[in-house]
Amino acid sequence: MTSTQRGPRLAAALLPVLAALVLALTGGCGRQGSPPAKGPRAGDLPAYHVDTAFSLPASPTWTRAHRRGRLVVGVKDDQPYLGERDPATGAYSGFDIEIARMAAASLGFPADRITFKAIASANRETALGNGQVDFYVGTYTINALRKRQVGFAGPYYLAGQGLLVRTDEHDINGPRDLKGKKVCSAAGSSSIQRIEADYPDATPVTYDTYSVCVDNLLTYQVDAVTTDDSILLGYAAKAPKEMKVVGRPFSKEPYGIGLSKGDTALRLALDDAIVAHERNGDWKRAYDATLGLSGVPAPTPPPVDRY
Amino acid sequence: MNVLTDNFSLYGKGLWGTVQLTLLAGALALAVGVLIAGFRVSPVKALRVFGTAWVTVLRNTPLTLLFFAVLLGLPRFGVVLPFMVFAVLALGAYTSAFICEAVRAGINTVPLGQGEAARSLGMTFTQTLSLVVLPQAARSVIPPIGSTLIALAKNSAIAGSFSVTELLGTYKPLNERGYGIVWTFVWIAVGYLIVTLTLAGVFGLLERKLGVAR
Amino acid sequence: MTAGSALYDIPGPKALARHRLYAWITTAVLVALVGFVVYKLVDTGQFSAVKWRPFTYQGIQRLLLTGLANTLKAFGWAALASLVFGVVFAAGRLSDHRVVRWTSTLVVEFFRAMPLLVMIFFIFIALKLDPMLALIIGLTLYNGSVLAEVFRAGVNAVPRGQREAAYALGMRKTQVMPYVLVPQAARAMLPAIISQLVVALKDTSLGYLITYQEFLYSGKLIATNLDYDLPFIPVVMVIAPVYIGMCVLLSWSANRIARHERRSPKAKGVTVTTALPEEI
């Protein structure tokens, strides 16, 4: 039969290709560092005072992290200037990452004792519920439904839903113009739920990451990307010739630090940390070095809600 | 609260998406698979080589990678189609390789004398294949094609993760609405069983009507 | 040499000329198609330096290799666990105890009927296991169930006489199985087992969908980065040959063993199978 005769020849032809690939990848013939990035470089980041004497035995999460010697923080890995991972170096950067670092510093963990773990929007409650992460900082909007599943410290930032469109798009200036248009957002996000509920004439499209949405926008697969304006500004800052953010924010999205539901001690400790860093100027410095690069000046942080 | 009755329309939409994916991709896979099987037994070497390459590449590509390449790669390439069409293309192309092999195996089960008799009557290759051999092969390939299409229905679950409306994808909104996750999955599993058991039933019927005891 | 020989006559001079013409047309169409694809690739800038530059960095190469290592890790554990699962449940289905037989049948049939991805999602989301465990357990339940069927079919395919002769010698069932049936069945089953392992290897890529950081996930991290100009097609060009190469090598070894076993006098009377219809 043909297949059994062709098999060896094909495999023999593939072997050197495979070998060459593996060699090329392991040969160490690559450059150091990371490929050049678009958009402005992140500014000088503040160093946070690590509270080494901090102790919180009442919190099972903190106790577990303390015994482990490391704090595991769930984040996003694909949001420029908010929570982004450099594929080459594996280093995380952005405003949410800084919030995680300042919160960790107040809990007694210096920056080199934090492990960041990328978690997709749809899996956040799962990751917090099963202890995959100690807490989660990644554009996590506080709402009543989620409060039934997880706890929230903060809010530490107030975003609002906005629209990102191509620069050659002139018909969309707000959510009312979305009739018959394809709108992309992350699966399970509150943004796509609002579009489905309030603007049923729009066609929602969901992916697990916003960068795929942005990609679809650039390739004319969708007409707009909707999510929190903070995220959209990050993308627009990356490619200002191709994309713009339009209209006023049409929702209030208070970002909180997500944590295991029952851990009240940790929640209140994180609330204290947020307030302290807002007061001592760390918060504004972190904003200016990250999201502030988009040109939007630092807003006043929202009041913390200790429920 | 009951997951099924509260969200019947969402659930129905998902089930319908899975059925659509299965039927459309199945039709595509059958058409392409039989054509490629014809290529693989044809007297023209270039066609045989093409058929072999098609089957070898698609059979050895992870379906998730194929979805990634088609749904996320093709748009970068200037090909812009609805996600549903992309999903049907990816599923259909992947399954066609398996249909092709089932059909080819079926062709091999037809006794040599049949082809020889057809040739001695002066039939050409196309006539021999389409009028004599394939109709007889059809009987013995019904069971393997049935299981391949059942596998296709199960594989269509991957499409849900690439923003195509189908059954597995319904877990996301249901989870967000706070329904019990175990029951959500029970009903999703039941949905898939409905589709696969229906397929199994149809092909069982076909086999009894057309099948021959060998 | 092929089944085709029964389907068409040995071509005469006229037919040869016609076949040559068909061959040229096919080749021309294929070349035109490939040419068009290459033109489109160049036209849409898929070979631009920006899109390929990331691959020249060590960090990116390390990311890809870590992903590949994670793929192989999940595959290795899943393969091992599937074999154990398969042996246990095949033994269960061949058991003389009705309860054991029925339970094993139920388990095997259920996991074969469920879409693998549904099980993986269930384990990941409802049972809240971490992505790697969810992937390995899902792969084990599905491939293990298929392997259980392969093993059972293999043991049943050993000619009756072998079993009867062994019993006639006064051997007990626990002796007949390991000393008489399994050694003969194993030869016939090996190709089918390897074919099923190819399926397991391909299905490790489902881990991508539950954020297990395997090979395809590494590729996604690179492809979705705006800084690299979203190199989806270059990423596919890099990772697809590796996946296909690994699977082809495994399939090829299955075919080779099958051919060897068919010729071997030791496997006489046992049908050597390479593939089940559900290996997809």
TrEMBL record, chain A:
> Which keywords does UniProt give here?
Signal, Transport
Give the GO terms filed under biological process for this record: amino acid transport
Q: Where is the Solute-binding protein family 3/N-terminal domain?
A: 70-294
A GO cellular component term found in this entry reads:
outer membrane-bounded periplasmic space
InterPro entries according to UniProt: Bact_solute-bind_prot3, SBP_3_CS, Solute-binding_3/MltF_N
Transport among keywords = yes
User: Where in the sequence is the signal peptide annotated?
Assistant: none
- The answer to whether UniProt assigns keyword Ion transport to this entry is no
Protein family according to the UniProt entry: Belongs to the bacterial solute-binding protein 3 family.
Q: What is this protein called?
A: Amino acid ABC transporter substrate-binding protein, PAAT family
From TrEMBL, chain B:
A molecular-function term among this protein's GO annotations: transmembrane transporter activity
What is the first-listed, main subcellular location in coarse terms? Answer: membrane
What is this entry's stated membrane topology?
Answer: Multi-pass membrane protein
User: Which cell locations does it reside in?
Assistant: Cell membrane
State the Gene3D superfamilies in the record: MetI-like
Q: Known InterPro entries for this protein?
A: AA_ABC_transptr_permease_3TM, ArtM/GltK/GlnP/TcyL/YhdX-like, MetI-like, MetI-like_sf
Spell out the CDD domains in the cross-references: TM_PBP2
Per UniProt, residues of the ABC transmembrane type-1 domain are 15-203
GO cellular component terms, A-Z? ATP-binding cassette (ABC) transporter complex
UniProt keyword list: Amino-acid transport, Cell membrane, Membrane, Transmembrane, Transmembrane helix, Transport
Query: Which parts of the chain span the membrane according to its record?
Result: 20-41, 53-74, 80-100, 181-206
One Pfam family here: BPD_transp_1
Any one GO biological process: amino acid transport
Protein family membership? Belongs to the binding-protein-dependent transport system permease family. HisMQ subfamily.
- Name the UniProt record assigns to this protein: Amino acid ABC transporter membrane protein 1, PAAT family
Organism per entry: Actinacidiphila paucisporea
Taxon lineage: Bacteria, Bacillati, Actinomycetota, Actinomycetes, Kitasatosporales
UniProtKB/TrEMBL annotation, chain C:
Q: How does it sit in the membrane?
A: Multi-pass membrane protein
UniProt superkingdom: Bacteria
Q: Does the keyword Cell membrane apply?
A: yes
The Gene Ontology CC terms held by the record are: ATP-binding cassette (ABC) transporter complex
GO process terms (BP): amino acid transport
Transport among the record's keywords?
yes
- Transmembrane stretches, by residue range? 21-42, 74-94, 106-127, 133-155, 176-199, 232-254
Q: Which Pfam families does the entry mention? A: BPD_transp_1
Which residue numbers delimit the ABC transmembrane type-1 domain? 68-254
Q: Keywords on this record? A: Cell membrane, Membrane, Transmembrane, Transmembrane helix, Transport
Q: Where in the cell is it found?
A: Cell membrane
InterPro entries to which the protein is assigned, alphabetical: AA_ABC_transptr_permease_3TM, ArtM/GltK/GlnP/TcyL/YhdX-like, MetI-like, MetI-like_sf
- What's the main place this protein lives? membrane
Entry GO MF terms: transmembrane transporter activity
Q: Report the coiled-coil segments.
A: none
CDD domains reported in the protein's UniProt record: TM_PBP2
Q: NCBIfam families, per this entry?
A: HEQRo_perm_3TM
Q: Which family does it belong to?
A: Belongs to the binding-protein-dependent transport system permease family.
- According to UniProt, the name of this protein is Amino acid ABC transporter membrane protein 2, PAAT family
